[in-house]
Amino acid sequence: MAIEKSLYSQLDDLLKQTDLTDVSAESTNYSELPDGYYNCEVDKTDLKLSKTSGNPMVSFQFTITEDGYSVEVDEKQNATLIPIKKTKNRKIFINYVLKNDTSVKRFVTDMLKFEGETPGESLLPKEAFTTSEVLEDALDLLIGQRIYVQVSTTVNKDDTKSTWNNLISWKRAAALELPM
Question: What is the spatial distance between Cα 75 and Cα 94, in angstroms, rounded to a whole number?
């Protein structure tokens, strides 16, 4: 009973302090990440069923470990990295719904981008993707690993936007001259 009173008291104080004047159903504190490259660490992996399709799904939660970079290309095709401020510690989520051989191959291709000590050498062997039990163990090995995530946005024919999150290997990051 005392815990409830304390909870209600704290909540009432918080609610009284919060100005809801500009809040609506369309409001959000969440802002999309700008297109760019983000050095991330894997926080969490989950193997579960997709709520919408019922297909097996692998979910990743990443934390951005340092501010990201956009790439500007000048008229002579010279690329310059431009820091994207205030993106460190933001989260990125990537889901892989495994519904057919094409989606499984895409997932495995991305998982092979996690590299070990030797650049260009995958941390996980292809054998890590032979059974669900082995896959689950392999996903646990990825927790704490770092990788670049490229965020890119496209405008569709109906003027809606689609945001894509793609894993970038260390080898590719080096070729892009991203900080390692």
Answer: 34
**Neighbour-count burial of 70, counting CB atoms closer than 10 A to its CB (0-12 exposed, 13-18 middle, 19+ buried):** middle
* pTM attached to this predicted model: 0.80
What is the Cα–Cα distance from 135 to 95, expressed in whole angstroms? 15
User: Per the structure block, which two tokens stand in for 151?
Assistant: 């965020």
58 closest CA partner among 104, 90, 122, 124: 104
pLDDT mean by block of 10 residues, the chain; 180 residues = 67 77 60 93 95 94 97 88 95 96 95 87 93 94 96 92 94 89
Q: Is 38 exposed, middle or buried (0-12, 13-18, 19+ CB in 10 A)?
A: buried
3-state secondary structure (DSSP) of residue 41: strand
